[in-house]
Design a protein that fits this description.
This protein is mostly helical. It contains 21 helices and no strands. It has one domain: Amino acid/polyamine transporter I. The protein binds 4-fluoro-L-phenylalanine.
């Protein structure tokens, strides 16, 4: 597998597996475990999970296919691609992608810093039994700043040193291991008393909730975040594709892998939450609190502490693998920003990476000081702006580029019926649904921003 560099001589993936692996590496990250469990806890469990699957299938996969199409068609970084294919009026969409990459990475790195801290402290046997207090002590303030800066330094270092290739190889081994470990943990969680109640919460929906606007909004936002959609990240990776891959099938593969990891993570977290009576602590199904955001970070150690010394080893291994998953996602976030700067200002890759990596690290400081700020950034950039990006991408592909896009998709996907279905979903379903989601999301985002600007406590 080669690791393409978006410079003047464009590289290409040597194999289909190389591309899929990078795309899965971007999609699978903190979103699948940290975010999925916290949002499932916030959103009432099963109804959220079902709506999430619906979004991934009917909006996520077609839109991911669209991003792949634009990438492969243009062979350019997203900012250049949307301007060149759509016309100068579409340039702001490219800038929006960059804003999303910058904004998401700034707080993503704070959470990735928590995973580093947990991995190290678990082997030192330093994660307190009172995991709520422990999470509180490491998730904000100086400890969080320190680990956030360390994570950003590593991400920048990896991109500058060009050791991405080695990292991708490592990820190739660690990701299946992480999944295997999750499966084992899910098997163990199934043996806990109370697991039935956990599954009930996670898997048995209350029908009324399926039409609850708050839950619909959470599910849509989570689908975009987890699939790395709406900000050109996967477009960037697809721009290094030359071969005649079936882009629809590739999108389906990435989405299925992404969903598999998140789903099994839920099978671990919720039985633990019910067995150890953590529901109240994390505010299950109620108003979001700092603890809700820490669902994964409290549930997992609480469960594994009960296994004694072995538990510490497992916690550490789990967070090391989660850290690797986070780094492969962080690289794709940074890549969107760096590629835009290289193309737009003709900076060298090293300069663009160091300067913007530093700015993003500074941009993450408020999130390291305040979980309220982190949540507000997550709702605004990680949910709302990604949906806005997805909405405009569907318009660009569905209305401005349809014949070209269809021809590009046909290169690898013969079935006319499948392409028609894709075009229908991108032209009609995605824009209408995403517009509604955007409108419904405004009050949710506003509620998250209010405490940050001091409007409520
Ligand atoms: N999909 C990543 C995750 O689930 O952790 C986060 C992410 C990466 C979002 C890249 C957006 C993106 F462009």
């Amino acid at each position: 597998m080669t690791t393409p560099e978006p410079t003047t001589t464009r590289d290409a993936w040597a194999t289909r597996a190389g591309f899929i692996l990078a795309a899965v590496g971007s999609a699978v990250g903190l979103g699948n475990m940290w975010r999925f469990s916290y949002v499932a806890a916030e959103g009432g469990g099963a109804a959220f999970v079902i709506l999430y699957v619906v979004f991934v299938t009917f909006i996520g996969v077609p839109l991911m296919t669209s991003e792949f199409i634009v990438g492969r068609l243009s062979q350019e970084s997203p900012v250049v691609a949307v301007r060149r294919l759509g016309g100068s009026g579409w340039a702001p969409l490219g800038w929006l992608f960059v804003v999303c990459g910058f904004g998401i990475l700034s707080y993503y790195s704070v959470i990735a810093g928590w995973t580093m801290r947990y991995a190290v402290d678990a082997v030192r046997n330093a994660i307190a039994i009172d995991t709520e207090a422990y999470f509180g002590s490491v998730s904000t303030g100086w400890p969080a700043i320190f680990t956030h800066l360390a994570f950003m330094a590593m991400t920048v270092g990896i991109v500058v040193a060009g050791v991405k290739r080695g990292l991708e190889r490592t990820a190739l081994i660690l990701m299946p291991l992480l999944f295997l470990m999750l499966l084992c943990l899910a098997g163990w969680a199934a043996t806990l008393s109370g697991s039935g109640a956990g599954y009930g919460y996670y898997l048995k929906p209350q029908l009324g909730e399926l039409v609850d606007p708050d839950i619909i909004v959470l599910a849509a936002g989570q689908a975009f975040f987890s699939l790395s959609l709406g900000m050109g990240a996967l477009m960037t990776y697809a721009s290094y594709l030359r071969s005649r891959e079936n882009l629809g099938r590739e999108a389906g593969t990435v989405a299925a892998a992404d969903f598999g990891v998140a789903f099994v993570a839920g099978l671990v977290v919720f039985p633990i939450v019910f067995h150890f009576g953590l529901g109240e602590t994390i505010g299950l199904g109620g108003a979001i609190s700092d603890n809700t955001v820490g669902t994964l970070f409290m549930a997992l150690p609480t469960g594994l502490h009960s296994l004694g010394g072995l538990g510490n080893v497992v916690i550490s291994a789990f967070f090391i693998m989660l850290f690797v998953a986070a780094i492969t996602s962080a690289i794709s976030l940074l890549e969107v920003v760096v590629a835009a700067v290289i193309d737009g200002w003709r900076w060298t890759r090293t300069k663009a990476t160091i300067v913007f990596g530093t700015l993003i690290a500074i941009g993450g400081l408020p999130s390291a000081f305040s979980i309220d700020f982190l949540v507000a950034a997550d709702k605004f950039v990680g949910n709302f702006l990604l949906i806005v990006g997805g909405f405009f991408t569907s318009l660009l592909v569905g209305y401005r580029l349809l014949p070209q896009a269809d021809a590009e998709l046909a290169d690898g996907l013969d079935s006319v019926a499948a392409r028609r279905t894709w075009a229908y979903l991108v032209r009609y379903l995605a824009p209408v649904v995403l517009l509604i989601v955007m409108i419904l999301m405004v009050p949710v985002v506003w509620d998250a921003i209010k405490p940050v600007i001091g409007l409520t406590g």
